Amino acid sequence: xxxxxxxxxxxxxxxxxxxxxxxxxxxxxxxxxxxxxxxxxxxxxxxxxxxxxxxxxxxxxxxxxxxxxxxxxxxxxxxxxxxxxxxxxxxxxxxxxxxxxxxxxxxxxxxxxxxxxxxxxxxxxxxxxxxxxxxxxxxxxxxxxxxxxxxxxxxxxxxxxxxxxxxxxxxxxxxxxxxxxxxxxxxxxxxxxxxxxxxxxxxxxxxxxxxxxxxxxxxxxxxxxxxxxxxxxxxxxxxxxxxxxxxxxxxxxxxxxxxxxxxxxxxxxx
Amino acid sequence: xxxxxxxxxxxxxxxxxxxxxxxxxxxxxxxxxxxxxxxxxxxxxxxxxxxxxxxxxxxxxxxxxxxxxxxxxxxxxxxxxxxxxxxxxxxxxxxxxxxxxxxxxxxxxxxxxxxxxxxxxxxxxxxxxxxxxxxxxxxxxxxxxxxxxxxxxxxxxxxxxxxxxxxxxxxxxxxxxxxxxxxxxxxxxxxxxxxxxxxxxxxxxxxxxxxxxxxxxxxxxxxxxxxxxxxxxxxxxxxxxxxxxxxxxxxxxxxxxxxxxxxxxxxxxxxxxxxxxxxxxxxxxxxxxxxxxxxxxxxxxxxxxxxxxxxxxxxxxxxxxxxxxxxxxxxxxxxxxxxxxxxxxxxxxxxxxxxxxxxxxxxxxxxxxxxxxxxxxxxxxxxxxxxxxxxxxxxxxxxxxxxx
Lengths: 270, 404
Known about the structure:
The complex is a heterodimer. Chain A is built from eight helices and twelve strands. By secondary structure, chain A is α/β, with parallel strands linked by helices. In chain B, strand 14 (about 250) and strand 15 form a beta hairpin.
């Protein structure tokens, strides 16, 4: 994760960002702290921090920095120049943490975990707005895994992790309208138990959730724990909990102003 | 019709990318042809597909390609042509690209450009600043010309099959003497009328047998009615035509009676001598010596004729090109805008002309010997269709079908 010391909205590169609606930095810091404490103290997750850097406000959204698989990191090729400044910073961090850094062909856009999520042993790869379909072949070769590209169809859900969250190998939360009919068929085929969310929930970024596997003998959520944006509808909460997942809502409203929520703020390292 | 080959790879089956690519092409009114497909055996193996995308126009194709690029299906040909400067006059660089007679485009500075004057067995030279590409025979190359080498960035478009049954549907039918000719000839006549209306040029390549068989007057009528715009022939054809105009014989045989004339064997030499004395065919017509015949009709109606010489020629007539390279160049100058070539009773001139024609020119080869048409096709003029017929009966039928 990366502390939001320099977090702000300095440019508009997605429909959520508006220079007239700047986030409150104090409130953002408190909200981020709450997420950090939930993960480290409540859920016992080990978190490594990337030092924040002035002038690179979106560095807090570490999920977009790359995709980690074992000791290999596939580094992102950001589409927008404003975010390309994050590439060398994250690459230095990965190298210092002794990861093998792989970069894709520069002609393909690729935005890390923002557009690539593991559903069991298959990687689901969202393309169109930020990542390019052509990158999936190279990803499959590097990861030696099946990579299924699905096209995104709604600019508001410009990253795959804004409209789809695999909770485990069979269960996932998604907003079907963010995909075209081919993408919907691929995901329905891949995941037997998909929870469709309403548009209101999707706009609250509930799909931008962090699944944390439950330790053996966990009582709260034997299926797993899910850290999610606060304010999700009761109906959805019930549907997730019925599948034995424990919900940990965290209010991250200041980060919604930049088009991100819980999942965007973390990158899974192992 | 524009087309492009695209390639797509990866897990394109499970992710429905391939069906989506095909659907997208059809949604945008394009068509496709799957050239190659390999499907991964295990779940993690990638699959690959190579397809040719066709669209009604270049604009439509670009639209499809843009959409396909988003799905990761990219054109294979992304590289420009490789250009090498010719080191000597009349010599291509060693790795030069040898052309076909099919419509060809080259990719130069990221743009496809049509090669002008396409002809088989030549090279392509490109103007380095304007990107203008044209086809040139080896003898016409100058030192320093930029010649296309290798096969990168070259796109050759195969001929389309005719969609409508009327237009040259008989094209591509095998040569046979056992085919009804009346139908063929009446369709040919229809095609010639359409070309004349459209202002396109019709080329006739004729051999001396046209005169020997007494079908000269029919050809003359075609010329006078504006169905012939260029004539290619040899010394023999012109000589016998002039002989028949001056003496009424061809190789000493009366064309109206079919009997040999007394001392007729020297008529053709006397004809050549007369024309040589006057300085040429045009002069003979102007002086009123030559009053009828095919050559007279050409001069009178301003139809350009190119007479190519050979080693067995008598004379020859002053209008005959005795330098073969000059003859080739003169023939090439007449070829732009030619839409149909009618080759009647000639083997060598038919092959010589066939070599220079782009495959888009409708080519009809009429000969009494089926081997001539086969030979023409074997030399690369595959678009030619054959009519096995005596030239006299063919031309008689054709003039009747054209109501001349």
